[in-house]
Amino acid sequence: MRATPRCSFLLALGIWLGPGAMGLASEPLRFFAIGDLPYRESEEAPLRRLLASAVAQRTPFIVHVGDIKGGSAPCTDANLLEIAALFGAQPVPVVYTPGDNEWTDCHRAGAGALDPLARLARVRQVFFEDPQVLRLSELGVTRQGPDYPENAYFLRSGVLVVALHVVGSNNGYDRAKPAAVAEFQAREAANRDFLERALNVAKARQAHALVILIQANPLFERGRGPRGFRGFKDDLVGLMRRFPGPVLLIHGDTHRFKHDRPLIDPATGSPFDRLVRVEVPGSPTVGGVWITVDPRAADPFGVEPVYAVSLEALGEGGN
């Protein structure tokens, strides 16, 4: 009898993990993800309601995939400190990966015509030097190191969650600016090395699924696309060749909720069935997405968008 795709997946996963490993699977992992918020003062109260609702429903951590202000809003320390205080006030850890609005776009006149690399250094200082801001130690995270403290992974319920620094605005690549090119090349190499390290950990720790967090929309619909995202998409293809379990990519950047399978397998010309992409909604829509990871389910990734306006209508989330 010919194996069904689901049976083939389970068989491959069993080979990856070893005999009996599937029986060791933990309870499904369920967490809440947001991004591209808040862009303006009017979004702050509904965002707090959204976060309060997620905490009340016992999310073990909150994911924020970057962009904590508008792209042309001023890049200020006050903004960074305000959002850091919001993250630090949450009773659960916040897994945050920086967005382009926090640093690559700070060269814009409306954002202050500032040096993006100086702003990146400040983002790292505010969010990652003080462990009480994100409280990631509660998740047992492993960081890449002092040069890229934002890159981190942790294992939860048999799922390896990996945060990588991939941002919008062409991932910071600007061939007219040598300093930007150098930063991009170094960070791209660091991301690749860290993803490889995470894959080795997934095998050693018998992870049965991967969740990858980035800020940028890599523009899958444009094929190879802009230079800034080609390496990352190639790395995803390589990952799918080596990891037989389900992979979820969560990002923000273009502010529209998406739930699809956009990564094309160059060998077949068809999408990889095992890789699912979710884009969180963003400003001016105040919303987020509940993610459930259960490789034993027919669809390993449960995806449920939630909007602050709906919580307000139901009287949820507090003030």
What is the string of SSEs from the N terminus onward? HEHEHEHHEEEHHEHEEEEEH
Major β-sheet profile? 7 strands, mixed
Shape: globular
- Cα(first) to Cα(last) distance is 58 Å
Structural class: alpha/beta
- The portion of residues forming beta strands comes to 15-25%
**In order across it, which strands form the biggest sheet?**
4-5-6-7-8-10-9
Query: What would the average pLDDT be, to the nearest integer?
Result: 91
The CATH topology turns out to be: Purple Acid Phosphatase, chain A, domain 2
CATH class: Alpha Beta
- Determine the number of helices (DSSP H or I, runs of at least 4 residues): 9
Helix content: 25-40%
Which runs of at least 5 residues are low in confidence (pLDDT < 50)?
1-24
Count of distinct structural domains = 1
CATH superfamily: Metallo-dependent phosphatases
Number of strands: 12
Outline the structure in words:
This protein has 319 residues and is α/β, with parallel strands linked by helices. The chain has one domain: 4-Layer Sandwich (Purple Acid Phosphatase, chain A, domain 2). It has helices at residues 5-17, 44-56, 77-88, 116-128, 131-134, 168-171, 178-204, 227-242, 308-314; strands spanning 29-34, 62-64, 94-96, 142-143, 152-156, 159-163, 209-213, 247-251, 258-260, 275-279, 287-293, 301-307. The protein has a seven-stranded mixed sheet with strand order 4-5-6-7-8-10-9, with helices on one face. Strands 3-2-1-11-12 form a five-stranded mixed sheet. The longest helix has 27 residues, at 178-204. The protein is globular. Mean pLDDT is 91; it is low at 1-24.
